## 1
Amino acid sequence: MIKSKKVINELLVEVFNHILSIEGSKLKERGIKISMNEMHVLEAVKKTRDPSMSNIAGRLRVTVGTLTTSVNRLVEKGYATRKRDGKDKRKVIISLTDKALNSLRIHDEFHEEMLDALFSDMNIEEDDVLLQSLENLSFYFKNKY
Amino acid sequence: MIKSKKVINELLVEVFNHILSIEGSKLKERGIKISMNEMHVLEAVKKTRDPSMSNIAGRLRVTVGTLTTSVNRLVEKGYATRKRDGKDKRKVIISLTDKALNSLRIHDEFHEEMLDALFSDMNIEEDDVLLQSLENLSFYFKNKY
DNA sequence: GAACATTACTTTGATTATCAAAACAAAATA
DNA sequence: TATTTTGTTTTGATAATCAAAGTAATGTTC
């Protein structure tokens, strides 16, 4: 494998997993009592325009059944609420509580900090070439498959 | 958030998860009947120099107890074998079977293909700046935390 | 508009992934 | 030899996941 492939592969394979587990423990330290997985569900709820069960599950790429159990737990723990759609009563719309929004905020802050550290340590703020490439990379993976 | 942060954040948050789930389904299509998680265990076994339970668990950042159950299943399914270390009989050394090595090969091939597609579509083969930056990024995350 | 089909979701049953704490066995140390 | 440390497994609990079956609302067709 040529070097460039190796580097990107490593980034994909090793680094992301590592970051995810760091993130989990850091959040724990900061008193967040939900898993990274649950955090991702909250994120998906927030970012999904019409946050029905199907739409959220689609975004997360899990089955709706899987999401049902996640949402059950989030509702129990006070992070989310369910309501039926007024127009189409088959649909269930998920909303986030203040508690959830607060957790998301802390999570975002952690990401900001991590990236700030990265930027200040690596001095890449101004590197337009890198950013363009990363943007392409990101776009590529989001669309290709 | 400034744009560059946004791009890297997106790469971390969205792209990685996406790729992982694509990868899972692609491997399924190619007749690999193990989960991505199990694949990661096989990878870790292969890459760990002295593949005892503790060393492998450390690399994967899971508890040894967790690894025990994963290895149990891999042994049941014929992907791995256990043996005791000759010198220190407390240690359990994991080895991979041909079946495991074959699965790893198919997995690697998928990664190669994915990256080949990326490279040919994006024409970044020669982009030394990008590669250097990605390498730094990779190094940074591996060492910082 | 009654019968049938589709859509949206939940439930069920099964497997996998994870941890912390307890148990166990070998090795190191005092 | 007795005690402690190290390496692993077991136990008990919870979370994450899917496929398939079940339920209820909506859409379609004749």
## 2
Amino acid sequence: MTSTKVIRLPQIKVACSECSLRSLCLPFGLDGEELERLDEIVKRPRPLQRSQRLYHPKDQFRSLYVVRSGSIKTYTTTSTGDQQVTGFHLPGELVGLDGVSTDEYSCTAEALETTSVCELPFFKLETLSGQIHGLQRQLHRLMSKEIIADQQLLLQLGKMSAEARVAAFLLSISARLQQRGFSATEFNLTMTRTDIGNYLGMAVETVSRQFTNFQEQAFIKASRKHIEIIDLNGIKRISGIMPCERTPQAKA
Amino acid sequence: MTSTKVIRLPQIKVACSECSLRSLCLPFGLDGEELERLDEIVKRPRPLQRSQRLYHPKDQFRSLYVVRSGSIKTYTTTSTGDQQVTGFHLPGELVGLDGVSTDEYSCTAEALETTSVCELPFFKLETLSGQIHGLQRQLHRLMSKEIIADQQLLLQLGKMSAEARVAAFLLSISARLQQRGFSATEFNLTMTRTDIGNYLGMAVETVSRQFTNFQEQAFIKASRKHIEIIDLNGIKRISGIMPCERTPQAKA
DNA sequence: CCGTAATATTGACTGATATCAATAGTTGAT
DNA sequence: ATCAACTATTGATATCAGTCAATATTACGG
């Protein structure tokens, strides 16, 4: 930084219409004029640095956020002071839904790396979605998708061995990244092993052992945060094995 | 039944305005005229008998349902044919949200006992909620509440001992029933132990042992489905104990 | 009323995973 | 470069909860 003169990049128009996540995000299915109206209410705050928070529990709920780049973890803090990681949020995913029902956020949203988001003032969004039917539909889709997907994963986890859980976790990340145009087989896990263990409900040591285990079986190459999936099908196979379940026969 | 003559009860008007669940349900906050418009789109199908289904996976998504009385379990069926119970739904709770994001239901909704529901054709509901802001707001609240509450429970379960999980489950049922004006300390569990175990991710035998355990410690009286909570605080204490967690210190 | 099937309970045994403990690698500040 | 703090890995041991097996209880159809 030898000069105080700021080099102005040609002003990049940050707009939904230019966004690569458009098809996964709220604008999906909207026409040009509708998109413009949505754009008017979308704010784009400055990027968060690692460990900066987007909101805290008890903060008044005003906005939903969509991750544009980077990643965010959300967690609650129990009365005894320990964290419960409630989710990891990748580009194109919504953050803030925990505030909708009570008008205040119930968890902390913290950037795992430098992260930029779009801010959607929720009440403006509601108003607008009352006027643009496609937006309302898409909002509902996103809301339920976000939460249902999580729920499915969590429920499955309950029945899985530690091995299967870690495999399922890797697959979840992999699939979500792929949907967003990233590699499905090579990525960085931005969260710590502790976060993963916390989220999956197992000890850090167990997470670590599973990574080692997968590596020894040549399913993945793992070097700290950097993960390369060598045998995606192998991982899928492992995640599918549910060692517990008997045969709860469906009634006719 | 000595006579074939049907005794006609004075036609009871089934309307949102008369419903005891009003304050927990969609009508919350609506005025008389708005309530009437909502009432116009609400259908009230004949009650389901035990083990009858409300919908199946792949059925086209058309409606949300609110349980009026009785109870419903939802479950998915894995490729290997076994069930994964995804939730239990008590009076005033929504069923069908799993269909919103993909336009087809992803699980089976099955009555655990004789159960009556209100049917809310979703697309009419969307249209109407575009016109009645209070309805839109309440719909969003309910959608997120339903799902977030579940998620919180499931996440916590991941970290809890079997004992704590069963305790938390009982508390969840108890609290939800209380909100609906039922007793918080005495109720029937309409689902089987197998269902509970499936939902909580543990073996039936373990569920059974925990019930026995709680009974021996005089926290509850349990006779099959019938549960009486003697020491609610005791149960709360147990559910709060999280034997795993270390102290993941929040960063400053 | 009886017999069959479904559901629930209890006991014995075993294995997966948490816990404790020690070490090693990484990151960032001075 | 050095140190401290954090993060990750690995090993040894204990324990919780799953599995298998047997029995008890309830529900239901004939």
## 3
Amino acid sequence: MSYSGARVSKARRQHLLGRVLAEHAVTSQEQIVELLATEGVTATQATVSRDLEEVGAVKVRVPGSDRLVYAIAELPRDQLLPEDHLRRVLGEWVVDVAFSGNIVVVRTPPGSAHVVASALDRSALEGVLGTVAGDDTVLIVSEEPRGGKALAARVGEIAGR
Amino acid sequence: MSYSGARVSKARRQHLLGRVLAEHAVTSQEQIVELLATEGVTATQATVSRDLEEVGAVKVRVPGSDRLVYAIAELPRDQLLPEDHLRRVLGEWVVDVAFSGNIVVVRTPPGSAHVVASALDRSALEGVLGTVAGDDTVLIVSEEPRGGKALAARVGEIAGR
DNA sequence: CATGACTATACACGCTGCTGCATACTGATC
DNA sequence: GATCAGTATGCAGCAGCGTGTATAGTCATG
């Protein structure tokens, strides 16, 4: 294994992948490999396959043609943050959990509240009305009048406490 | 090596460390180990030593006494985010950098803009007037009228591009 | 059903971060 | 200067992630 790569982060590669799909009508993963290469990013077909999956890309039929091109499915993504991803984010960044009434207060390291809130939002956690994030604090509003306790327990459990 | 630990994240342990220091007048790292243990977190003196350093704790003299107790130095921390930490954060989360006039536009994965902005703020990067973070975008305002270009280059360089 | 193009995946492996153990270092006290 | 309490750190090991290689699976076409 050369492992020449690791020069760019996975996040950046997947971002570029999105741009490539938006700008070119690609029909195969090998094409993506080449296009990424022209952007200075090296990756193999295997990696592209995994990226496509993670980014939520699908092959769609081009109207008026029988070609299948890759495209990123925008909306459904937001609902489908995988459980173990949420578990990783919370386990890593959640530092404390408390509650009062229907509000759960989640503490995080400074500046990290939005990452946690975003993960919670996208995970479609049961019984969550909404979230607000400050700098190091996330408020989760429960649907139930006194639902804070149960929700806090659930969050704490996911965070691995 | 037992390695029974790793049950709690480093972030959480350090958060607890802060609470412990605030609530108890501790004079030795061994005491901290014990206090953490009562909170259900196991760590050795070596780890506590490293945590204290990372958190920016110092030993201060108790007024009217000759005891030295640990305390967290609040303010200086914000100025002193180490260079390689910034490098890690940017390298991991910055996905694209652009500029116009005196504004640098940094793109990040969804929900991660605040982590990046927070790291930038705390790093006291040269020539930065301020930052604003949305969901996946950070705006950096340069001090110089046309400083965007240079600043973008600097940010890109730190991010490893 | 054979073939070929394309994609997904089992496997192995390197890298990095975190941690404990053992030990070197430091500073105070006598 | 010897001793001792307390702290920092070199070293090694482990875990998890990300990735490439090789290969198995899938699907369309003839």
## 4
Amino acid sequence: MGKEKTKYCTCLYYSANALSRIMTKISDEEFAITGLSSSYAFLLMIVNENPGVQPTEISHQMQLTPSTVTRLIEKMEYRNYLERKTVGRTTEVYPTKQAKELHPKIQKAWANLYNRYSTVLGKEFSKQLTADIYKATQVL
Amino acid sequence: MGKEKTKYCTCLYYSANALSRIMTKISDEEFAITGLSSSYAFLLMIVNENPGVQPTEISHQMQLTPSTVTRLIEKMEYRNYLERKTVGRTTEVYPTKQAKELHPKIQKAWANLYNRYSTVLGKEFSKQLTADIYKATQVL
DNA sequence: AAATATTGTTTGTACATACAAATATAATTT
DNA sequence: AAATTATATTTGTATGTACAAACAATATTT
């Protein structure tokens, strides 16, 4: 780890992975006030805002594999934040009272996260960077 | 997964993670000709070019945790690509014949990786993007 | 209506990575 | 020289993610 220069810093694979690890760390730090790590917080946000949403839709929103989403939901169900209702071949995911109550805190944490990195990186740069990265994900 | 737009695409955490997953996939595809996945290939590259290099130095180069590096080395030792020699409190890592022989293929794969994404993204854009991402990792 | 294909979800399994604690050695202080 | 602190590495354990296969239900074709 650390901030030394590496021969590989000109490799997109390398840089992208490094950034991902750092952002995950920062994000987890900010979401700590919710008692959840980032992925679970985002999952709850999505379900809170779309009660009854289906795993497939969640996997689109979160840009994660369906199997990963199942795993995330399972854990949140176990911890009493979510409930699943099977409807035909689909599944509907609902927030529990506990999840709904957490919503403001999650939103706050998300805002903090945004403020944190956009302060450090500069508002313009971070906006541009995010957009460029997103563009790359769409093209690749 | 997929290419649908999500509310969260303006979040750096989200975009960065998405890009990281995609790049890892692409990179693994390109390194497949070496029979290794990306991290192991990069590890071998580093050791081939710096025989006797220590785990700490590797962890700087790879921007990974020391414990992760230990795990990577362990596996490559098991697969007969690397050897460890304990020297005082440090460890020196050496490539085996097998690793040395693989070096050209690894370099080829790395070049292919570069060509692949810089073709899709455009040479200028991908260069700029990589630089910007690297810059962000240094600041955050 | 039966056979086939498609879609949505979950399960088994595996992997990369990290954190915290343990270990081992070296360096510094007293 | 003994005690303390610092550094390098490894180990135990946990997490997030994915792939491939299995399962279940719906839709389509024949």
